[in-house]
Amino acid sequence: MAWRELVAREKVARFRDEPYWGRPVPGFGDPDARIFILGLAPAAHGGNRTGRVFTGDASGDFLWSALHRAGLADRPSSRRANDGLTLTDVRIGAAVRCAPPANKPTIDERDNCAPYLVRELMALDRVTVVVALGQFGWDAGLRALAALGARLPTPKPRFGHLAEVPIGDWGGVPSGRTWHLLGSYHPSQQNTFTGRLTPPMFDAVVERAKVLADLGSSSGPT
């Protein structure tokens, strides 16, 4: 918390004339979403600056363009929280709500934010697909679903790009509901600039999420 506020005060040269949000960053998207995209944490000069997750940085540019190609976002980029971006059938959130130093949350930060993720998923009663961005998001997704009453498979499902796990057999949730946890490499610059994650690779994840959520195949802009 102290670090996110320090960043908001000191800023960086390219954004020195802009106000920073500097507070926890909530989820964003369609309240009737069937797909939930789960990231790591707000970027120091992205979501921590703009107040909206994946907004105003290179990771967000990569993400929004993919969702636009799939017909799930009404525009291919988003630089500000008030730019009118609209998502359809998708909501996006983060496992940790405050920007951490070096994008590496502590265990305490992870655990303190976990209840907010659980409540968000509980409120999104149409979501059946969780797309976990990176190992951290994958583990957070598993913990959140377990907290909601899901009996997780054993051994623990391993993260991988396009890894897929159906999770059902719920305790307090009406029978018949099944979630799908779907893995993707995180669209961080470390992955996208090196080619570890390419647009076609991420498009494949989004298309698979649409199929699992019964949204069909892409009919969006090309």
Salient structural properties:
disordered C terminus; Uracil-DNA Glycosylase, subunit E; alpha/beta; 222 residues; 12% strand
What report would you give on this structure?
By secondary structure, the protein is of the alpha/beta class. It has a single domain, classed as Uracil-DNA Glycosylase, subunit E. Helices cover 33% and strands 12% of the residues. It is built from seven helices and six strands, in the order αββααβαβαββαα. It has helices at residues 2-10, 47-50, 58-69, 107-123, 134-147, 189-192, 199-212; strands at residues 28-29, 35-39, 90-94, 129-133, 164-167, 179-184. A six-stranded mixed beta sheet has the order 1-3-2-4-6-5, sandwiched between helices. Helix 3 (58-69) packs across helix 7 (199-212). The chain is globular, with a radius of gyration of 17 Å. It starts with a helix and ends in a 10-residue tail after the last helix. The model is unreliable at 218-222 (pLDDT under 50).
